[in-house]
Amino acid sequence: MKGKILLADDDLEILVSLSAVLNSEGYEVIAAANGREACQKFKEEHVDVAILDLKMPVRDGWDAFERLTGINPLVQVIIITARPDQYPTAVAAGVAAFMEKPLDLPLLLRTIEELVAEPIESRLSRLTGSEPVARFLRTD
Question: In CATH, what number does 3-137 get?
Answer without folding.
Answer: 3.40.50.2300
